[in-house]
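Researcher: We're teaching a course module on how sequence relates to structure. For the next exercise, students receive a sequence and then see the predicted structure as C-alpha cells, so they can try to spot secondary structure elements on their own. Here is the exercise chain.
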Amino acid sequence: EVVKMCLECGAKKIKVFDRSCNSASRCYDNSGIKKAASEAGAEVSFVVDAGFSEMKFPQGQVLKKWEMYKPALEADVLINVPIAKHHGLPKLTLGMKNLMGIMGGDRGKIHWKIDDKLADLANFVRPQLTILDAYRILVKNGPQGGSLKDVREIKTIIAGKDIATVDAYGATLFDMKPTDLGHVVKANKFGLGEIDLNKLNIKKVSL
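Model: And here is the predicted structure for the students to work with:
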C-alpha cells in the first residue's frame, strides 16, 4: 500500500531494500515483501557492499562516522517502514533502530552505547517519513522471537514526520513510556520530535 500511495503522489521510481541480518533473499521471500512490493510497482533491491560509503556524522556525539548505504541517502524522499518488536538491547525496535538497515560494516559494534549511537544515526539520516507497522508486534524474545506466543495482533499503524515522536507513541504499544527508551530521549534533545504525548495532537483513524 505504501508503494501504491507513493506512485499516486507522483513518484517516478521506488526502491525497497534492507540490509537484513539473515539471507536477504530468504527474508524478502519469506516475508512476502518481494512479491508484494514488486507487484505494486517498486524495485526490490539487494543491499550490496558496493553501495556503501563511509560518511562522517558532523553532529555525532558518540557515532562519528560509519559506512552508509548511498542509495538511501541520495533518495529524494526516504520513507522508513519498521516493524514494531521487542529487542534485548535498546528494549524495542521501532523507527530509529530500523535505520540500522542502511548501515554497512560490523553493526555489532553499534551495540556498545547503543542509545547514543541510535540517536546520532537518526540525527544524521533524518527520514522524511516513518511508518511504524504494528499490525502484529513481537512482545518478547526479540529481535527474532521464539514462538507465535511472542506475537500480539493489535492492527495498528503509526505514521509521522518526526521519528522520535513515532517511536515515543510506539513505546506505549508495549506498555512502556517514551522515557523508558534512552535513544528516544536523546533524539528528542536533538530536535527529532516531541516525546511528551500530552503535548501532541494525535489523529486516530479507525478502518
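Model: If you want an answer key for the exercise: The chain is about 30% helix and 20% strand. The helical segments are 2-8, 24-31, 33-40, 70-74, 95-98, 114-125, 163-172, 182-189.
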